[in-house]
Amino acid sequence: MRDDFDGLAVADAAVEELNRFRRDNTIVREIRATEELARVLVRYPSRVGRERAALIKRLGTFLANSRYRNTKAAAEAERLLAQWR
Length: 85
Prior knowledge:
Distance between the termini: 46 Å
Order of helices and strands: HHHH
Mean pLDDT: 90
Shape: elongated
Low-confidence stretches: none
Strand content: under 5%
Structural class: mainly alpha
Largest sheet: none
Radius of gyration: 18 Å
Helix content: over 70%
């Protein structure tokens, strides 16, 4: 698909935007936090019984990690914890 747009102004603008995203530490941090939260949620799919307790504990660990503080993923983890407690 990349070849379909090669040489067009839209493709060049998209490449520049992607490069800007890669250089922006805030965006990179948000992406990493979101990916980690997704891994946590996939690991505990049933959310009942012992798995729920393990998920609550793991979300607490996620929130304690300073790398993920003040991200949208951390806000989502806090919302989930409040919902399940």
